[in-house]
């Protein structure tokens, strides 16, 4: 399944979920023909939207990606609040459904981000292994020293890693983190009174810590 197919499948799945949600019944179809009501509605709501229309747009491949679809879904809830007010029953239901929808979208985004980060870590690890044990065809001696300089890591990457490690240490993962550092930095001595200086660590240590962070981060 291609990335585009996966996106369509996710859009269909979530849209169906809300179509099947009992509270969504008033948002399933375009506003029924009531001359007085529809006239006022059209004057105030410039772009009506409903779940059935969104399903048709998905099936007709009218969405270029997630964002236009997300905007249409949120438009349903926003229109309901704008026309009925947030204090009304319909407005309250719309606010609830919007929060529910965006929570699901957030979980998808976090999952995709974590998967991407893990792929980067795995790729970096593979490259590191190749450099440490290069095939003869590479023309590189196995004794070729690897640069241990932290400069090969961007400042933002190191800062992010530091913050993640600190959070895990606060969650009781200090022993595991110290053991990872010691296994890669033989001269390292843990001192509770002194902050850990990431600037002294090799790439190998930083990558090992990134892997630990990734495996202990909840999706």
From TrEMBL:
Gene Ontology MF terms: chromatin binding; histone binding; protein serine/threonine kinase activity
GO biological process: chromatin remodeling; regulation of transcription by RNA polymerase II
Transmembrane domains' residue ranges: none
Signal peptide from the UniProt entry: none
Keywords, in A-Z order: Bromodomain, Transcription, Transcription regulation
The keyword tRNA processing is annotated on this UniProt entry: no
One of the record's GO cellular component terms: nucleus
Residue intervals of the Bromo domain: 19-91
InterPro entries, sorted: Bromodomain (IPR001487), Bromodomain-like_sf (IPR036427), NET_dom (IPR027353), NET_sf (IPR038336)
Domain of life, source organism: Eukaryota
Identification of the protein by name: Bromodomain containing protein
